[in-house]
Each structure stands twice: as structure tokens, then as C-alpha cells.
Amino acid sequence: MASTGAKHRLPLTAVVLAGGRSLRMGVDKTQLDIGGRTLVARAVSAVAAVASEVIVVTNRSEKLCRAQFPASAEIMTDDVAYQGPLGGLATALKAARYPWVLAVAADMPWISADAVRLLWERRPGADVVIPVGEKGAEPLLALYRTATVGPVSAAVLASGRRRFSAMFPDLRVCEVPEADLRQVDPQLATLVNINTRDDYERAVELARATGHERCRSAAATRAPAGCVRPASIRHSSL
After folding, report:
1. Domain 4-232: which CATH class?
2. What is the rounded CA–CA span in Å between residue 168 and residue 152?
């Protein structure tokens, strides 16, 4: 019999991208501790609560402690090392058992299940469901349709490009405005990621202030939204 947790998980594959070189940090940031858990363990635990399958993609599998992940999580190595997050996504898309993939970064300590469910609700008619805010699109908290994004991501990488934004002209992209995301995550803690030492120190302080847990956010009524033209996506650095 399925567990209560399994009944509430979405039929999607969550991909935790943990293959970066952490050049700005100077250390493997996925192993940094926040609130008694490593960054990558926090990300995996968060998505495991909402996704039916979890894949961790890395170039350094020897650095990951298998015991810190749920037993069902799978660890994979990039097909081609150091092709950036898009390379990790392309690797996982080939292995995913579900029609949709949620891509997240391993340095996101406070991923909200409510935020993921909001993206899930917006997927009809789209190939990509992606939050968009003042800084542009957030491709590392986004949903990707396996059947369509798989071949497009492979073609983009084969052309020598590694930015997520290079895929969007060939896909149906549904934007989720930051204002909608705030309805389920008022502080946008879900979008926090750790790139620098200052980012890490702020995250540690926030964890201490909130009892080593993510910022709480109350779910609210979701505003309706439809798919938009790919040209309206504001390209991020990814």
C-alpha cells in the first residue's frame, strides 16, 4: 500500500544539479552545512517530499555521502563533465521516468513544496514552466517537459551553447510571475541560492533565526495564468 507521503507526491522527476565547480566559493558548496545538513541534502530532502522520483546529477559522486539522501534517490554522473547546469539537465532527461522534470540547484536550501505545486498547476500547454522576476527567468526552479526539452537541450549543447535561454525559442514557455510565487512563498525563500561566502553567511544566520528550518510560507489562492510567447522570457545568465 502506498504511504501517505507517496500519495501526495507529484508524478514528476526532480533533478538536483550538483555538478558545478563552485569557483566563486573556492570549496564544494554543496557540502556546506546549514542547520545541521549539507546544502545538497537539504535540496534533495525538499524535492523528495513533492516528487515521485529524485535524481542527483554530479561530476563528483565520490564527494556525496549516500546516507544523507533518501534511499530512493538516484545519483548520476553527467554524460559530459562540466557542461554546466544544462548538461546536467540533459543527462537527467534521458533517465527520467516521468513526463515532467523539476530542475533545481543543489545550493537552494529552502525549496518550497507549495512553490513546486504552483508551477505544476501552470503546465498545461507548455514545455517549460518557469518563474520570472526582476532579475529575469529562474531556470533552476523550473519544470521541463521530458519529450520536448530532451531533444532541444541536446541540440543546444551540440551547438556549443550551454545557456538554458538558448532553448526557449524552440519551446512553449509558461512564465510564472514573481508576484504569483509570493502567494505561496511570501519571502521568496525558494529562490535563494548560495553563490558566495556572503550568501552562505546570510543563510546560516537565517537558519539560526528560524530554528534551522526554511522560512515558513502560507499557501494562498493561485492566480490563473496561461502560457506565453517564448520571446517574452528575459534571458538570465543561464
Report:
1. alpha beta
2. 9
pLDDT band at residue 22 under the 50/70/90 scheme: low
198 burial type by CB count under 10 A (0-12 exposed, 13-18 middle, 19+ buried)? exposed
124-150 per-residue burial string, b: 16 or more CB within 10 A, e: under 16: eebbbbbbbbeebbbbbbbbbbbebbb
Could you write out the DSSP letters of every residue in 115-147? HHHHHHHT-TT-SEEEEEETTEE-TTEEEEEHH
The answer to whether residues 164 and 139 touch, using CB atoms and an 8 Å cutoff, is yes
Which among 2, 231, 11, 219 is positioned nearest to 115, based on CA atoms? 219
Secondary structure of the chain: what % helix, strand, coil (to 5)? 35, 20, 40
Distance CA 52, CA 26 (A): 34
Average pLDDT, the chain: 82
Q: Where are the alpha helices (DSSP H) in the chain?
A: 4-7, 39-48, 84-95, 113-121, 146-158, 178-184, 197-209
Cβ–Cβ < 8 Å for 51, 72: no
Please, what sign has the CA dihedral across residues 37, 42, 48, 49?
positive
Q: Which three cell numbers stand for residue 12?
A: 514528476
What pLDDT score was predicted for residue 60?
72
Bridge partners of residue 180, in order along the sequence: none
Position with higher pLDDT, 137 vs 28: 137
The CA distance from 17 to 25, in Å, is 17
Residue 20 has pLDDT above 70, yes or no: no
Task: Give 122: exposed, middle or buried? Use CB within 10 Å, 0-12, 13-18, 19+.
Answer: buried
- Ranges of each domain in the chain: 4-232
